[in-house]
Amino acid sequence: LDVWNKVNFGRYYLNTLIVVLGSMLCSVVFNGLLAYAVGVLKPVGHKIINGLILLGYMVPAALAIFPLSMQIVELKLMNSYLPLCLMFGANAYYYLLFKDSFEKVPVALVEAAKVDGMSDLAIFFKIILPLSKSIIGVVAIFSMTAAYSDFLLPYTILQDVDKQTVMVGIYRLSGTTTLDSSEMLMLLVISIIPQIIIFAIF
Length: 202
Known about the structure:
Blueprint: H1 2-6, H2 9-41, H3 46-57, H4 65-74, H5 82-89, H6 92-102, H7 107-115, H8 120-128, H9 133-149, H10 152-157, H11 166-174, H12 181-201
């Protein structure tokens, strides 16, 4: 507790919680909607969209950091959590997981809902998502782990010390004389507790 209070580590945890929750929400909603449109509704050109997503999956994430940073600066979103939530939430792998799961939903169920007058959006939220709880949990855990443990993106975007996440905060504190080696090790242990809890539960 002394180390926690000494560096106000709770602030980093709160910042990280905001990014994690936003990333989980974006990963489920946006990837789910895209997979639903391509895998279930199948509009004109859905194969092209699917091919472009698979092509983007082949591009290493590190190569996209520079152009993304330029766009974030142009949009004046530096020191904002929104770009982090969107970037951690948008993932071709999550899309593929959702698409594979949605394609296994019986077509007759979707057609029956349309006959009853439900809109495509209502079908997604009231039928498709409730039948896909397991894959939603998988995607949520993956996005949580990615958002919590990532260093490069938060370090690039969050220049304000009061908005930095746990990983960036630990890196910043390691370059100061505020903490000795034993206190730094204690912070490292504290930083991995949430992930240990999540993996122990699931």
